[in-house]
Amino acid sequence: MQTSIKPRLTFWQLWNMSFGFFGIQFGFALQNANTSRIFSTLGANTDDLAFLWLAAPVTGLLVQPVIGYLSDNTWHPFWGRRRPFFFIGAILASIALFLMPNSSVLWMAAAVLWLMDGAINVSMEPFRAFVGDKLNASQQTAGFAMQTFFIGCGAVIASMLPTFFADVLHVSNAAVNGAIPDSVRYSFYVGGAIFLLSVMWTVFTAKETPPQDLAQFRAESSPGLARAMAEILGGFGQMPKTMVQLAFVQFFTWIALFAMWIYTTPAIAENVFGTGDAQSAMFQEAGNQVGVMFAVYSGVSALAAFILPVFARHTSRKIVHMSCLVIGGLSLMSLYLVRDTHMLYLPMIGVGIAWASVLTMPYAILAGALPAKRMGYYMGVFNFFIVIPQICSGLLLGYFTRHFFDGHTVQTVMLGGACMVLAGVLTLFVRDSAAQTAALPAADQAAA
Length: 448
Hints:
Order of helices and strands: HHHHHHHHHHHHHHHHHHHH
CATH topology: Growth Hormone, Chain: A
Distance between the termini: 7 Å
């Protein structure tokens, strides 16, 4: 089958089309590092944290396939195909980031988390399809690696902000009368501004190519509500085999990551700082330390993003992903042994290597197995295998922590590490049919 050859993009074109992810991950990093801290400060019990976090995966479950489908079937002469969703999501997410640290009661923080995560997903999901739209198979791994670089950079700065405000600018880090510390509030304000500006950079500097037959595209993209819903639901039965195999890898990977995001703060507070009191100065200090830990793994991922494709060319994407997940899982499990604050950052190096691969390799493998006309939709469906394990975690991890681990959250983090190692083993069973195509010259790819 003959296919059109997409032109190779320059470094700066890759930079512009990926820069929005700097802001998107700024928002996600603030959420990941501080949500449990905010919930705990507002009075949440440790056993309830996983349940309260359910807002994040449930919004992804609802939003991603719909936004993917809509972006597949959108074209505007000025805004293009994916960029309208970048724009709308950025505005809503920025508003939510300003609201979150001003939550005065627990239910308000939980409600804002729904808005924030849903809005971030509106911006984020089309970014994955953007790479498939614009890049040849030979550049797709580099495209996802560039996204991973910006994800790492955004997460490093965002995760460090509370510590920066507290230690450098001497902003209060105390939970006065049960309120969110000023160091956290100011961090979210900065995050809201950076999210908006970064995504707008991509919106106004990256261009999209219109469909070759615009009239046919518009005819096919106006199916009516009933048919649209049928197409959204019907696509699940038509998933490529590679996507099904990757689903098992993603399931156990994201159980591990969700366990880390939810429980690292109380785990470090108990295991290293010796406190479970969320109102204490030591607990808030543990929260800042976890922010630095998350900055370390994000920084490592930003550097590893450009190294992993080199290893993939000399081995395979499967081998690289398997190796990275095993390293990350063992690193998470090793947190159980840490009692010294100076040793907290060493395991995060391994987690960062895994995180770089999680953000790059599955999408690079998947992009080559998807039909181009439904790239956004299937990227949205693929997100199900991120949010479903998170929902399972939200429903079950609290029970495991309470009944199997006697409330010791560091053991829950260890369970997450074991799940990540299992995900690495399952990677060996994934069929990467695009691996050979990606290595071909452009002329040969057209006939592949």
